[in-house]
Amino acid sequence: MEFVRNVVVPEFQKLYPDVDVVVSNDENLETRMAAGDLPNLYAGVFGYQPAKYAKMGKLAYFDQFDGYQELIERIEPVFLRKNFGRTYYIPWNATTQLMIYNKELFKEAGLNPDRPPRTWDEFLIAAEKINQLPPREDGSPVYGTVFWNDVLSSGSWYWGMLAQLYYNFNQGEFTLLNRFGTHPVFDKEEANMATFLSTMQEAQKFAPLTMEKSFFSRNIGMWPQFGFGWKANLSEAAQKPMVIGEDVGLAPIPTVRRMMFHTLP
Asked: N or C terminus: fewer CB in 10 A for the chain?
């Protein structure tokens, strides 16, 4: 919502200054639909929503607008999805995944705050060192990392949080779920699922059972599974706002091994 208000709407109004844009975080969308009070624009969370509301005949489809063909030619096919033969949603499930880490805890643990772990072996070493730091003044323990274990029982959401980690175990060649999206794929040895699961099991030794204390409590060393949505939480961090580059570092998701680059003669 913050991104829509502060970035999308101002850019839109530069192009269309006479259009009044009202943005609201409305969780009663279907009640509004029933009352005939539909918003012109709605930002949803779950991928099934475009199909659901398209089936209800409540959505405009992109195919009918000028410039549609030019637009989709600029987008990788993997990010395009049709529902009922039409395009209602662009891009489809596209995001940027990265790892954020607490530079102050890195320093306290004797780690270089400007050199975050690049491999999972390095990640586990760093997580263990941070995990050994003494409790904070209020008695809260320090953890090397954190995972969204609160949603473990919901299945798809939990695995969705881990999916981007798994891709780095097989260079993105194998997806986490089967083609129906119902179960993880275990039957391809080259996909490194076993290595992924054992690495996550090791990492969980340095993580809390839940996210009762999130990364923004300043008690977590590294959060390697979210690349969007958390920026608004920086201002709500414990003690004082967190600042990217000062007390928060940004890094790629670790890989299984270091990538070697050679310069051709």
From this structure: C
What 213-216 contacts at long range (C-beta under 8 Å, 24+ apart), as own/partner pairs, is 213/140, 213/143, 213/146, 214/146, 215/100, 215/102, 215/146, 216/242
Q: Find the distance separating the first CA and the last CA of the chain, reported in whole Å.
A: 49
Rounded distance, CA 261 to CA 263, Å? 7
- Residue among 236, 257, 250 at smallest CA distance from 96: 250
The Cβ of residue 59 has, within 10 Å, a number of other Cβ atoms equal to 19
Backbone phi, psi, residue 40, to 5°: -75, -30
Tell me: the pLDDT tens digits for 64-99?
999 999 999 998 887 888 888 999 888 766 667 789
Q: How far apart are CA 23 and CA 234, in angstroms?
A: 22
Tokens for 136?
Answer: 């904070």
Q: State how far the alpha carbon of 112 is from the alpha carbons of 45, 102, 117, 145, in Å.
A: 37, 11, 10, 16
d(CA 140, CA 179) in angstroms, rounded, equals 43
Instruction: Say if residue 230 is exposed, middle or buried (CB neighbours under 10 Å; 0-12, 13-18, 19+).
Output: middle
DSSP state letter for 220: E
pLDDT computed for residue 66 by the predictor: 92
How do residues 113-158 score in pLDDT, each as one tens digit? 999 999 999 999 999 999 999 999 889 999 999 988 887 766 666 7
